[in-house]
Amino acid sequence: MTRARLGQHFLSDRAVIEKILESAELGTDDLVVEIGPGTGMLTHVLCEKVRKVIAIELDAKLYERLKASLAAHENLELVHGNALDYPYENLPEFSVVANIPYYITTPLLFKLLEAKKNLRSMTLTVQKEVAERIVARPGGRDYGVLSVMVQYRARASIEFIVPREAFRPVPKVDSAVVRIRVLPKPVVTVNDEAAFFRIVRTAFSQRRKMLSNSLRVLRGDIGRLLREAGIDPRRRAETISFEEFARLSNLLSRGHDVPMPVL
Questions:
Q1: In sequence order, what are the beta bridge partners of 157?
Q2: For a FRET experiment, which of 13, 14, 63, 231 has its CA 20 to 30 Å from that of 165?
Q3: Backbone phi, psi, residue 19, to 5°
Q4: Could you tell me if 24 and 179 are in contact, meaning their C-beta atoms sit under 8 angstroms apart?
């Protein structure tokens, strides 16, 4: 039995699993982390294709079942724990292939991207609307903090749509497989990454407001700095490009502390 609070909707379509693996472009010598293996269908196929699989399962009952059903795979390391607590930064070069539980998608993406040094790629099955936010570009309603946080460090694309009927139990929404390839360096140069991300979060925390209002908590003279960065203070966060956020961040952090706003 699945548990709704854990966002458990298990892929039951073998053809979809094969398409996911094709999108992941894995090699026989790869280390792959799977998050939320569930029934183990994807885990089983992964173990047959790569050098080692680390599968992280939070649900104690599923963990025990997986230990039994996947015992024949000597290249599997099954971990009982919370994927948000796992020390990914300690791994050698690795890729992630996972059907991510809906309720932890955003924090898990941020956690994984912190391990950017050794993270090669992520091939993730997520809610369709989340996938659209991940790949969104400036100017659209889907463009936001998630778009900037992911695309700052990676190239993201939607590979294909997964109909809800491919899962058991059937969820209320369709899903999508998104491929995230981590870049060797960020798409823009910033002097202070922490300041850059605080500015992005603050700007989108009140996305309907003009930047001169939403960013006022950072600096009283934000209007002047926006103009110095070549940004009309009347614009809204969803219209600001990565390059513009970077210019503003570098101006704000040049000789000044950017305080953590109260959101």
A1: 179
A2: 63
A3: -70, -35
A4: yes
Structural tokens at position 55: 């599968």
User: What's the distance, CA 70 to chain centroid?
Assistant: 27
Domains and CATH numbers, the chain: 4-182 (3.40.50.150), 193-253 (1.10.8.100)
Q: Does residue 3 register a pLDDT over 70? A: no
On whether the CB atoms of residues 63 and 79 are closer than 8 A, the answer is no
The answer to whether 262 and 202 are in contact (CB under 8 A) is: no
Tokens of 60: 């104690």
List the one residue out of 243, 251, 30, 27 whose CA is nearest residue 137.
243
| 39: nearest Cα among 58, 15, 11, 14 | 11
Distances (CA, A) of 36 to 8, 39, 112, 247: 9, 9, 14, 39
pTM of the model: 0.88
- Position 75 confidence tier, pLDDT thresholds 50, 70, 90: very high
Find the radius of gyration of the CA atoms of the chain.
20
What is the overall mean pLDDT for the chain? 90
pLDDT in tens, 152-178: 999 999 999 999 888 888 888 899 999
| Per-residue pLDDT at 29 | 97
**110-121 pLDDT, tens digit each:** 999 988 789 999
